[in-house]
């Protein structure tokens, strides 16, 4: 939502906003790797261990987050530039390729590892199609530096410069009614 709102408002900085939010998502995904590894190590030690195929599948799905993260950011740029029809078309293409690839992977006997590999390939195809379509957006807005102020070091979001509090009568309209003149 942040990228959609800010890129729609500051179109000339769309590429920088895309870079900053994508970098933020990738940092979060990287920070979660130790948590995933700790969970898997504890799970392997305390109960029936997962097979090598299941562990490889988990790793492949996690790798698939990288192109998926870029695709999410590009989709947000399309929404910000009022081009929602393009991601809708790409979603149809993605669904068709995922189902077709999944059926083929299962038919040739690749199992869940094959499904995870198909997921990565599908995410890469989706990213490629979205990048191809967004080249004019990215080309006309490049040159700005990434916006790394999405979240401050203390974890709170950066306040908007032009934000104003809502008047109380707009937030709680029923609580601020005037008493009736016929009472009393």
Could you walk me through the main structural features you see in this protein, from its secondary elements to its overall organization?
This protein has 184 residues and is mainly alpha-helical. Helix content is 69%, strand content 0%. The chain has seven helices and no strands. The protein has helices at 2-9, 14-46, 52-63, 65-80, 85-107, 111-141, 168-171. Helix 4 packs parallel to helix 6 (111-141). The radius of gyration is 23 Å and the shape is flat. Mean pLDDT is 83; it is low at 169-173.
Element-by-element helix/strand order? HHHHHHH
Could you give the count of β-strands?
Answer: 0
Distance between the termini: 50 Å
- As residue ranges, the low-confidence spans are 169-173
Q: Mean of the pLDDT scores?
A: 83
Helix content: 55-70%
What's the alpha carbon Rg, rounded to whole Å? 23 Å
Derived structural class: mainly alpha
Count up the helices.
7
Write the layout of secondary structure elements.
Layout: H1 2-9, H2 14-46, H3 52-63, H4 65-80, H5 85-107, H6 111-141, H7 168-171
Can you summarize this structure?
The chain is an all-alpha fold and 184 residues long. The chain is built from 7 helices and no strands.
Short key terms for the protein model shown above:
184 residues, mainly alpha
């Amino acid at each position: 939502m942040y990228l959609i709102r800010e890129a729609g408002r500051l179109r000339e900085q769309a590429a920088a906003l895309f870079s900053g939010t994508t970098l933020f998502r990738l940092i979060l995904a990287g920070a979660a790797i130790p948590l995933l590894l700790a969970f898997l190590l504890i799970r392997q030690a305390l109960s029936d261990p997962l097979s090598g195929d299941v562990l490889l599948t988990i790793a492949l799905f996690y790798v698939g987050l990288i192109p998926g993260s870029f695709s999410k950011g590009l989709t947000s740029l399309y929404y910000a530039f009022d081009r929602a029809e393009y991601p809708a078309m790409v979603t149809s293409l993605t669904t068709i390729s995922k189902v077709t690839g999944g059926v083929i992977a299962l038919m040739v006997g690749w199992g869940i590892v094959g499904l995870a590999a198909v997921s990565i390939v599908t995410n890469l195809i989706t990213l490629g199609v979205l990048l191809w379509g967004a080249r004019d957006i990215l080309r006309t807005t490049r040159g700005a530096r990434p916006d790394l102020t999405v979240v401050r070091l203390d974890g709170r979001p950066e306040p908007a410069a032009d934000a104003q509090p809502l008047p109380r009568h707009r937030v709680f309209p029923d609580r601020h009614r005037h008493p009736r003149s016929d009472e009393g």
